[in-house]
Design a protein that fits this description.
The protein is of the alpha/beta class and 424 residues long. The chain has helices at 16-26, 33-46, 57-67, 85-92, 111-117, 137-147, 198-209, 216-232, 235-240, 242-249, 281-312, 341-350, 377-380, 396-410, and strands at 50-54, 75-79, 81-82, 96-100, 122-125, 150-154, 162-163, 166-167, 174-178, 191-195, 318-319, 327-328, 334-338, 356-357, 361-362, 385-388. Strand 5 (122-125), helix 6 (137-147) and strand 6 (150-154) form a beta-alpha-beta unit. The two termini are 40 Å apart. Helix 1 runs antiparallel to helix 8 (216-232), helix 1 runs antiparallel to helix 11 and helix 5 (111-117) runs parallel beside helix 6 (137-147). The protein folds into two domains: 16-209, 3-Layer(aba) Sandwich (Aspartate Aminotransferase, domain 2), CATH 3.40.640; 229-262 and 293-410, Aspartate Aminotransferase, domain 1 (Alpha-Beta Complex), CATH 3.90.1150. The chain binds pyridoxal-5'-phosphate (PLP). Pyridoxal-5'-phosphate binds next to helix 3 and helix 4. The site of pyridoxal-5'-phosphate has 14 residues, from helix 3 and helix 4.
Length: 424
């Protein structure tokens, strides 16, 4: 049986899971001093004053937005390409998401289009640092200043990324982070709100601390189940589980099993009960260990991305990702543009390498946001984008195999097969 490479690799610091489980068994898994320590270190890492830990990244955004006391029907600007739950939180709070098209090279919100989308009802801009690549923050902040708008940065993918030497999450009025298992800092769920505004921080804290503590048995389950999932996407777990399903599906044309991996797109009002819980001590213990290692993890992702970019240079039919100058991406995902992404995906999985067609949402065309539809042709053309694995636990040998599989998959092997080009 061949060794396979899964599309995701969850980050993990050895020893942190047993310590967290022991804390739960001792009775310190829910409340405890690690929560405050983690918040303090997280704020210090960014050079800011206030970090508030919460149940999910999305809830950090929800509490921030709720704390800002904006008039009902305010317009909030989002990139068309982002995780649907984030604009949905704005809709749930009675605001109007306004989707703005993206830059075709970086896949991040296009600052020129941001300026053009501002109306007298606009109150805030929510740039997503998509896949770990910092947005072009200077023109975004300039537009916000010129029109008196708030900026809330979505850093779910980008903890540790930098723009012109400054960490993302420190430009706007506030920012939020996700600690879901696949994110740069994994505590098997959770999130953080970050700000330098003491009054805003106090309001966010009041809202988050009004939620209930989860039961210890649920914390135990969350950490154990998270670990099991992490092992299932590891080399051996993946080979004997999901790989077989993806391999078989690759012979059935466009049948895409990936859609079953993600949350169903649906209205989120009223908010699910699981969102309305507090962040726990056991997770904060894991978070403290993760934070000590975050720069080393990110450096590995960056080095891996560099190796893959070099390996794919000059290959017909794929274009490696572009980085804005003076930015440091953390490559939460590494995206190539492919002439024929479906063919590449099928060929790669048959060679044991699991790659994924871009999985974030083209929000402006979702039924959920039908009332807020805008034209975003660049975001709508992103089906040509393919995500290749570059995560920290891969070895150089794995990366070379990924490069070779993609190079081979790009070969036009039949004289009658049409050679396609990707859109400009
Ligand atoms: C871009 C983006 N923002 C926000 C979130 C929300 O994070 P959480 O799942 O912790 O609520 C995610 C989660 O995947 C995301 O991808």
């Amino acid at each position: 049986m061949m060794r396979t490479i899964a599309r995701y690799g969850a980050r993990h610091v050895r020893g942190s899971m047993p310590a967290a489980i022991k804390a739960v068994l001792r009775g310190d898994g829910v409340r405890g001093s690690s929560i405050q320590q983690f918040e303090k270190r997280f704020a210090d890492y960014h050079g800011l004053h206030h970090a508030i830990s919460v149940s999910y990244g999305r809830m950090a955004f929800y509490y921030i937005l709720k704390s800002l006391d904006l008039p009902p029907d305010s317009e909030i600007i989002f990139p068309a390409l982002t995780f649907w739950v984030v604009p949905e939180m704005a809709r749930v709070l009675g605001f109007r998401p306004k989707f703005v098209d993206i830059d075709p090279e970086t896949l991040n919100i296009d600052p020129v289009r941001v300026e053009a989308a501002i109306t007298p009802k606009t109150r805030a801009i929510v740039p997503t640092h998509l896949y770990g690549q910092p947005c072009d923050m200077e023109p975004i902040m300039a537009a916000a200043r010129a029109h008196g708008l708030l900026v809330i940065e979505d850093c779910a993918h980008a903890l540790g990324a930098a723009y012109k030497g400054r960490k993302v999450g420190t430009f706007g009025n506030a920012s939020f982070f996700s600690f879901q298992m696949l994110k740069p800092l994994n505590t098997y769920g959770g999130g953080m709100a970050l700000t330098n505004d003491a009054a805003l921080a106090a309001r966010v804290r009041r809202l988050s601390e009004a939620e209930e503590w989860p039961e210890a048995k649920n914390v135990f389950k969350k950490i154990l189940l998270g670990n099991l999932q992490r092992k299932l996407i590891g080399p051996y777990g993946f080979t004997f589980t999901m790989f077989l399903a993806f391999y078989i599906a690759s012979f059935f044309g466009d049948y895409d099993l990936s859609r079953y991996l993600w949350e169903k797109i649906r209205p989120l009002d009223p908010l699910p009960d699981s969102y309305r819980r507090r962040y726990t001590n056991a997770q904060a213990m894991i978070g403290l260990e993760m934070l000590k290692n975050i720069d080393a993890f990110n450096a590995l992702n960056r080095a891996h991305a560099k190796r893959v970019t070099a390996g794919l240079s000059g290959v017909d039919g794929v274009r490696p990702p572009a980085e804005l100058s003076q930015t440091e991406s953390v490559y939460y995902q590494y995206c190539i543009r492919a002439a024929d992404p479906d063919r590449l995906k099928h060929r790669a999985i048959r060679a044991g390498v699991d790659v994924e067609i871009m999985h974030v949402d083209i929000c402006n065309v979702l039924e959920l946001f039908e009332r807020f539809k805008t034209d975003c042709p660049v975001a709508e053309a992103t089906e040509h984008t393919l995500q290749l694995p570059v995560y920290a636990s891969l070895t150089d040998k794995d990366l070379d195999r990924i490069i070779n599989v993609i190079r081979n998959a790009c070969r036009v092997d039949s004289p009658v097969e049409e050679k396609r080009t990707y859109p400009a």
